[in-house]
UniProtKB/TrEMBL annotation:
Protein name listed in UniProt: DNA polymerase-3 subunit chi
GO biological process, one term: DNA replication
Family annotation (InterPro entries): DNA_pol3_chi (IPR007459), PolIII_chi_sf (IPR036768)
Any Pfam family the entry gives: DNA_pol3_chi
One function term, GO molecular function aspect: DNA binding
Superkingdom of the source species: Bacteria
Keywords: Nucleotidyltransferase, Transferase
NCBIfam families noted in UniProt: PRK05728.1-5
Length: 138
């Protein structure tokens, strides 16, 4: 069964997600990042700039190098080249999340993120998944 970890009270969800994928990369973990196309573009740009002295190798799923790239960004999980860790930055429950060993949900402080995060939490809980919650800050 997929392990599901919620990271809540994170402030800026995309910046927090950058730190998560950097940590995964440094631990030799492959991560697929799922979000809507506009949010993916913003996340891609942030990965290049959030830490000026560090590089987190990443690309879009349709890139020829995606199979060898540790961090892959996609709006469609059918294009995911690996199924170890899924980081969901989208508003909906990922349709194929059960293919992954682990699912990370990052919930920012914006009202719409909190509302959709609560819906996803209930969805997983109601289907019997064990949920781990990592609350940041106070």
């Amino acid at each position: 069964m997929t392990r599901i970890d919620f990271h809540t009270n994170v402030g800026d969800a995309l910046l927090y997600a950058c730190r998560l994928v950097r940590k995964a990369y440094l631990a030799d973990q492959q991560v697929v990042v799922l979000a809507e196309p506009a949010r993916l573009r913003t996340f891609d740009e942030l990965l290049w700039t959030f830490s000026p002295l560090e590089f987190v190798p990443h690309c879009m799923a349709d890139n020829a190098e995606a199979v060898q790239t540790p961090i892959v960004l996609t709006a469609d999980l059918e294009r995911a080249p690996h199924h170890r860790v899924l980081l969901n930055l989208g508003a909906a429950v990922p349709p194929q999340f059960a293919r992954f060993e682990r699912l990370l949900e990052v919930i920012g402080d914006a009202p719409e993120e909190l509302a959709s995060g609560r819906e996803r939490y209930r969805f997983y809980r109601d289907r019997g998944y064990t949920l781990n919650n990592y609350r940041q800050g106070g």
